[in-house]
Amino acid sequence: MTEAQQPPFTWPQGKRAAISLSFDDARPSQVDVCIPILDRYGVKATFYLSPPNIGQRQESWRAAGVHGHEMGNHTMTHPCTGNFPWSLGNSLEHMTLADMEAEIQKANDFILDAVGVQPHSFAYPCGQKYVGRGETVSSYVPLIARHFVAGRGFRDETVNNPSFCDLAQAVGVDSDDQDFTILKGWVDRAVQEGGWLIFASHDVGVYPHQAMLAVTLDALCKYCINPDLGIWVDTVASVGGYIQQHRTREGLEG
Questions:
Q1: Position 224 in a domain
Q2: Within a domain: residue 9?
Q3: Is pTM beyond 0.85 here?
Q4: Of 8, 52, 56, 228, which one is least surrounded by beta carbons within 10 A?
Q5: In terms of Cα–Cα distance, which of 107, 116, 89 is closest to 48?
Q6: 69 Cβ partners below 8 Å, 6+ apart?
Q7: How many structural domains compose the chain?
Q8: 10 located within any domain
Q9: pLDDT digits (tens, 9 = 90+) for 140-193
Q10: Domain assignment of residue 245, given as a range
Q11: Average of per-residue pLDDT across 13-28
Q12: So what's the pLDDT on residue 5?
């Protein structure tokens, strides 16, 4: 069966699409502003924790995990390309696959100890998925496939096709600095395509850079849980796990 011939993906309970809200770096505004809004609507989200920031709100993060929010892995030290001045001393270009695996394992151990939750999904720092440079470049996507149910990208340009997407590098749409009209358009597209939309943001309520306004998050939650739309709103690990199990059960490729 070709991809074009595949039947529509079957979401649970007759849902038409899935949406995951995710937030990076364990920023204080996420527990101070974001989580109270999510809890008001009964929405569970995924938080990709940067270990150096956990201590600012450690007990709040632990409580969020107890209440069903997902605590994901975002590496131990957030290595990115050295073209960013702040990452020049911790660049992907100077790392090996063994270095990255150590980063991932250390972050998993730290989060489990600090928050009491074992991470099941991963967010690529800055959306970058490689180590090395030139002829020595290697993708570390296989490491994520080995250790996690799903890995989320950043600043991607589409919705995940649940019958086809590579769960180890599921696409994530940047939801920072966007008004509700833009985000609603993405939600409507996911419903139309029967896909899985993953929003990726950072601060909440702090404007204007790398943030979602509190009023925008409130409107987004209210819109997504409207039963008339038929959207399953859940964490990256929950949706990714369902997709994995469904594909196995139905014998779907990809």
A1: yes
A2: no
A3: yes
A4: 228
A5: 107
A6: 35, 38, 44, 45, 46, 47, 235
A7: 1
A8: no
A9: 999 999 999 999 999 999 999 999 999 999 999 999 999 999 999 999 999 999
A10: 15-250
A11: 97
A12: 55
